[in-house]
Amino acid sequence: MPPEEVVTRAEEAPPYNELSDYEKQYVLFTDGSCRIVGKHRRWKAAVWSPTRRVAEAIEGEGESSQFAEVKAIQLALDIAEGERWPILYLYTESWMVANALWGWLKQWKQSNWQRKGKSIWAAELWQDIADRLEKLVVKVRHVDAHVPMSRATEEHRNNQQADQAAKIFQTDLDWEHKGELFFVWWAHDASGHQGRDAAFKWAHDRGVDLTMDAIAQIIHDCETCAEIK
């Protein structure tokens, strides 16, 4: 294939509910966030697999939420490549990410990753993603964020899972505690945001005992519960 014909862009993916069960196993929802913790700016990138019902995340310091959203795409590509997926369906609430994958990458590559004589933002990340799009079929869909629960589809609910997986807790926690709190969030969400006792029972029924303090912290930070109140 001549260089000018190499694919450096993603196609648009269909709505999640239009995918077959086979296609859904190659879906990842992505998100990224940034927060000031103490004296440091922390970022977190996450992906959510709706068929496996599991999330993966990476974290770092000193960058923005937009940077985290791009790192989430790299994380999704890592998973797809590592498991030799034939295709990757990406669902993101970031218009920047969606537009970049749909066409901006091709334009940036043609301009040697520069704009008005200067390197584009996060050029190294975008170059890496463009190179990987040449080897893997990727389809991308933009998902509307923060849709009211009364109008939320399965696609929106999965996007919310990615959003929660990318959240950074207010306190600067050690890694083990962060892992515990992520499971607490999962219990709180799976039990329908019905309070401490419901989350505790949901986890206990599955062989995990959570502390009431950890559950209370998650409920305090939960945006969904704040909206209900």
Automatic annotation (TrEMBL):
Sorted UniProt keywords: Endonuclease, Hydrolase, Nuclease, Nucleotidyltransferase, RNA-directed DNA polymerase, Transferase
One Pfam family here: RNase_H
Residue intervals passing through the bilayer: none
Molecular function GO terms recorded: RNA stem-loop binding; RNA-directed DNA polymerase activity; RNA-DNA hybrid ribonuclease activity
Domain of life: Eukaryota
Entry-linked PANTHER family: ENDOGENOUS RETROVIRUS GROUP K MEMBER POL PROTEIN, RNA-DIRECTED DNA POLYMERASE-RELATED
Protein name: RNase H type-1 domain-containing protein
Highest classification ranks of the organism: Eukaryota, Metazoa, Chordata, Craniata, Vertebrata
